[in-house]
Design a protein that fits this description.
Length: about 240
């Protein structure tokens, strides 16, 4: 049984990934502010299999914070075998209204934290022939209006995925998953007309599910020992028609 650290795992896609991987892994649920949700998920998973889930808090806003989280995660069960960099800030930053705080928050959560957490866990991942999964976005390659900083950070995460895959080989595999229309943003009001426009551009004609993402993560960490440095779009073909 392998040990998996998932950042931002108390809700939404992170929670779905935790539930999916818990079937045959021990799960470390990282959270920033969602303590109640994280503890509920821990109780749920431990009721299914005792001592199989734990929660750790970190703001992930500094290299030191990432190193501390990595240390505490490794102390739980003797190391981390899989890291899923899922935690992410997402909100619009129209040019002319964005400030340095927006830059620090969006680049920090989407690029800085994945790098420093991956770096801190490299000894454990290398020792255990582990893997890293970075949660990216189809808009890392095709920009989303008014989300310049977010898209730039995710584009950086694509290159980080490829660079780490090269540098950490052959002991550690690094891949990315780029969701399309899976969950509508919590922070933004999306009207029905906007949703319909988005759906009209998806060749498969529907949104995906959290399970689609979680099963892709499982595939990348469990099955293909010869896949590294790749980003898989799970988007119903939407990236063909943005």
């Amino acid at each position: 049984m392998r040990n998996v650290l998932i950042t931002g795992a108390a809700a939404r896609l992170g929670r779905a990934i935790a539930r999916e991987l818990h079937r045959d892994h021990r799960i470390i649920i990282h959270y920033r502010r969602s303590a109640s949700a994280a503890q509920r998920l821990v109780r749920e998973l431990n009721e299914q299999r005792p001592d199989s889930a734990a929660a750790l808090q970190s703001d992930l806003d500094s290299a030191a914070g990432c190193e501390q989280l990595a240390q505490h995660a490794c102390e739980l069960w003797g190391g981390v075998d899989v890291l899923v960099n899922n935690a992410s800030s997402f909100y619009p930053t129209p040019v002319g209204k964005a400030d340095e705080r927006d830059w620090d928050q969006l680049v920090g959560s989407n690029l800085k934290a994945p790098f420093f957490l991956s770096q801190a866990l490299t000894p454990s991942l290398t020792e255990n022939s582990g893997s890293i999964i970075n949660m990216i976005d189809i808009h890392a390659e095709r920009p989303m209006p008014q989300h310049t900083i977010y898209c730039a950070a995710k584009a950086g995460l694509v290159m980080l995925t490829k660079s780490l895959a090269l540098e950490l080989a052959p002991k550690v595999r690094v891949n990315g998953v780029a969701p399309g229309a899976i969950l509508w943003p919590e922070q933004e009001d999306v009207d029905e007309e906007a949703k319909a426009r988005t759906l009209s551009r998806i060749p498969l004609g529907r949104t995906g599910s959290e399970t689609d993402i979680a099963r892709t993560v499982r595939f990348l960490i469990s099955e293909p020992s010869y896949i590294s440095g790749q980003v898989i779009a799970v988007d119903g073909g939407r990236s063909l028609n943005i």
